[in-house]
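fold-stage: in
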Amino acid sequence: MAGRQPRRTRIGDAVVVLGVAGGLALVGVSGCGRSGAATGGGSGGGGGTAAGEVAVAVREAADALVDAGSSKARTSMEMATGGTRVTIRGEGVYDYRKRIGRLKVLLPQDPSGAPVRRPVTELLAPGALFMKNRGAGVPADKWVRVDTGTLADGNLVTGGVTDPFTAAELLRGARTATYVGRTELAGAAVRHYRGTADLHEAADAASEANKKPLGAAATGFATPEVPFDVYLDDQGRIRKVRHRFSFVNEEHSDPVAVASTTLLYDFGAPVDVRLPEADDIYAGRISEERIGGVGRSASRE
């Protein structure tokens, strides 16, 4: 929107829950598809593909994942600011019907040469993020629980990875979508689409569990517009999706650039995720750990 000033956010405070400061971003949406403008064309699957069909294919990608039931996932989140670049990687499984998953998250090595830390285990659930091996004084046998509905970023950056279903449902807000062409990804034939999604529209189309978080993200980032590239197989399932974000952090005058990528494979893989009991959740304070020299002190319950 012309004349709009970037909003300074406290997204960096959210990210420190994991121990990654300075901000990372990925977004998501869920719910039913909705109509809207789309641009593009080209041929999909050998025949002509109208702009409206392109938009429908992109917006319905989350539905295809629900039909698939589950999959394995790999994620990466890259953040660059002030000449510092960090990448956080995750790998695990996700159940698209129950909306739960488990990922092991690898934090980048500190530039100072500090030893590489053990992976953080993250459990993803509607409205909540659970983390184990959080460090910073948290007992080894305890989980940290974060209420994702209270985060300014809608939990798009807090965990350093993105909930795979949330990444898919962001596409519900696709305003423009262009068919790029067919290619191959990890041995699967895929169709490549490129476009821009709007977080406000994604939040409107989201399921009840995601309306609040996505609404927060729509107002928390510098812009609600999110460029994306997505690769769909012949069943309409996402094999790869990449979102690019930009926000202004209170500590940095320049926008923080973030790219989040999710790879999905081995559909139908078994998913056995048990959420922690109340006694297993840590209730103490959590202090920030800096990565790449970026960040500020912060704490959460």
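fold-stage: in (second)
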Amino acid sequence: MKRLATVALTALAPVSWGSTYAVATELLPPDRPLFTGVMRALPAGLLLTALSRTLPTGRWWGRAAVLGTLNIGAFFPLLFLSAYRLPGGVAAVLGSVGPLFVVGLAALLLGERARLRTVLAAVAAAFGVSMVVLTAGARLDAVGILAGLVSSASMATGTVMTKRWGRPEGVGPLAMTGWQLTAGGLAIIPVAALVEGAPPALDGNALLGYGYMMLINTGIAYWLWFRGIGQLSATSVTLLGPLSPLTAAVIGWAALGQSLTPVQLLGMAIAFGATVAGQLFAARAAAETQAPAVAAGARSFSSAEKNDRNVSMDLTSGGMRR
């Protein structure tokens, strides 16, 4: 039951990210994706760091910078570059292959066994997403495709390294999230200044949109995401990723008046089913991994009980001899 609650809370992160497109197109200044990246990450990171009242120490300054760059600082610009050079559907499909990167990296760096059923779930989820977002007239661009794949690989590497390094003793996910968002936001600033120039003027809608992006879409969402990485396997967490494009499609239909074809509905069913199956597979894998450890613990406990009985008998015998 605890695992189910953790999965459900972690799933709220990609569900929230699915609202990014609608908020950006309806409320935010156009053609300022890097400025938007800074506004999402840096204020949220500073706020969470202030709330946690904890700063990195020692090697964690460097680790926070690396994780922040992988998960935020490199991921955001590459994702936006891919989105600008490719139709949204193609960019979304490239993003949906992230779980495959995580499966491979988790096997290499974390020792998580790459099970065939998990790989098939990730492939099915990506296929379902492609049915939802791809159109017949989608054009391809080599730079956009490369940027999309590298952005997925960056986030996947950040997810796995977050799991591998864990957290310093006594430091919670709130502080870790704040460190990464701050480092990532700072990394984007020079790129945004070089590419987009001075910040745009902000009206009421923009302030509302950025407020939502900062607090909910980024601050709370990434806190839930990194919290989930700490409690679940890296593969289990990343298999929740396809919920983001599915949420975007639902919001487009419900709030923006976009239509959904039967093929898209079938794709949504496939992607969602694969996501659920991936969580079931991950739970089963966790149980299979824990079973030998529990059995070994039971054997050790039995041996300890036996030793206790022998000691008790020796003490009793000694007392009788005395």
